[in-house]
Specification:
The protein is 50% helix and 16% strand. By secondary structure, it is an alpha/beta fold. The protein has one domain. Bound molecules: guanosine-5'-triphosphate and magnesium ion. The site of magnesium ion has 4 residues, from helix 1.
Length: 389
């Protein structure tokens, strides 16, 4: 039987110079490292060989020659990586044998330069549309700007969030005019401090405090804007999750790519983080109908994560009735039991599940449980702050 690949999308928003290209090169370099491959037993390659080579070239250029990748303002090509199992054991998680991460860049220039014409306006709208399939959006706050303005960060932070809002305004207006709120939409807008190696003392909580202290109003304006186009605004969190990122340790002498912060969390953030959140919302906020179906339904990435975590997918095929039946509720799509089981995999249980998966050679399940562990560990170390709502 042909196997499926669990596909996750992530959208990265960042102004020019905020570190997007270095981040994606560092991510790819990390994934290609032998250490990573043996830790999670999966082999990540770029789906487009040319793109993969360019990222690797960037990565090697940094680590060997201390050379940064060229600026590529305006380019907005999505990157696609597929992680396949090293070994092809008999026992794999249901009918999945890999994870694909599609990375959407939304160029920073679009935040403060109006489109040069109809053609570019169309391209912006297309890029926005493509990234809507992401569950999570990451907004980069430039750590170099924060460090440069130490003690007086308000100006930069206010301007950044205002720019992001203004940049999205035309796209949003178009959607509002169409009168169709979006069911498929990044529901988690996380803020990430890039270049955090320049702020060695900072924690994710400090970063949140900085944003709230100086830009609460601007963030709220952005939040309101996003709410206006999303179907089911109770299933949206903007600026409630915080992450520290550093693609490498930059010094005058060299670029040390062995020192990264948070880059290993990109896959976990795209795959595991939405699960717990969406289920909590579904239960606590009583999501129904299309919103629940989009977030947790069979076609959602989260359903795939649950399937891998609890090895459920075999049973899915036996669910009677057409897929996506009218108003299929969460429980009709993923059994509530299974969701409960997946969400309750925390702490010791999670580690047990991970060890068990490894022992049984179920590497995909081992990788996904490892992702969940990585999130827990980073949060304990103060590099990640997850919303409690
Ligand atoms: N200290 C430090 N500096 C970084 C880091 N990442 C990027 N930089 C610096 O920031 C510069 C800009 O990073 P890029 O990744 O090219 O920025 P970008 O967001 O792709 O910018 P555009 O392509 O213009 O949109 C780099 O040339 C580095 O000098 C980091 O993790 N730490
Ligand atoms: Mg770039």
């Amino acid at each position: 039987m042909p196997k499926r690949v669990l596909e996750q999308h992530i959208a990265v928003f960042g102004e020019s110079g905020s570190g997007k290209s270095v981040l994606i090169s560092s991510f790819y370099g990390l994934m290609r490292e032998e250490q990573t491959q043996s830790r999670i037993n999966i082999d990540v390659v770029a789906d487009d060989a040319g793109q993969g080579d360019r990222l690797m070239q960037n990565y090697l250029g940094m680590s060997r020659d201390g050379r940064v990748p060229p600026s590529n303002r305006f380019s907005a090509t999505p990157y696609s990586f597929t992680a396949r199992l090293h070994h092809r054991p008999e026992k794999t998680s249901g009918d999945y044998d890999g994870i694909r991460l599609v990375w959407h860049d939304y160029p920073g220039e679009w935040f403060h330069e109006s489109p040069s014409g109809a053609e570019e306006a169309r391209r912006r709208a297309e890029t926005f549309e493509a990234l809507l399939s992401s569950d999570v959006a990451i907004v980069l706050v430039d750590g170099a700007e924060v460090a440069r303005n130490a003690g007086d960060e308000a100006g930069y932070l206010k301007l950044l969030f205002t720019n992001i809002r203004n940049g999205l305004l035309p796209v949003v207006e178009e959607i509002v005019e169409s009168g169709k709120p979006l069911a498929r939409f990044p529901r988690i807008w996380m803020f990430a401090l890039s270049k955090s190696d320049l702020l060695p003392e900072i924690s994710a909580a400090d970063f949140r405090d900085l944003v709230v202290l100086h830009a609460a109003h601007e963030v709220d304006q952005l939040r309101k804007l996003l709410r206006s186009i999303v179907l089911g605004e109770e299933a949206l969190s903007v600026g409630e999750d915080f992450l520290l990122l550093s693609s490498a340790k930059f010094s005058a002498a060299a670029i040390d790519v062995s020192e990264k912060v948070g880059v290993d969390l990109i896959m976990p953030i795209a795959s595991v983080l939405p699960l717990e959140r969406f289920v909590r919302w579904a239960e606590g906020r009583n999501l129904r109908g299309r919103v629940a179906e989009t977030l947790l339904g069979q076609a959602s990435a989260v359903a795939g994560v649950v399937a891998i975590l609890v090895g459920w997918i075999g049973k899915a095929a036996k669910i009677p009735g057409p897929i996506g039946a009218v108003a299929a509720l969460v429980s009709a799509v993923i059994s509530k039991d299974m969701v409960d089981k997946a969400v309750k995999l925390v702490g010791d249980q999670l580690r047990q599940a991970n060890a068990d998966a490894k022992e049984k050679g179920d590497y995909l399940r081992a990788a996904v449980t490892q992702f969940a562990i990585d999130l827990e560990v980073s949060e304990k170390r103060g590099m990640l702050l997850r919303s409690r709502r």
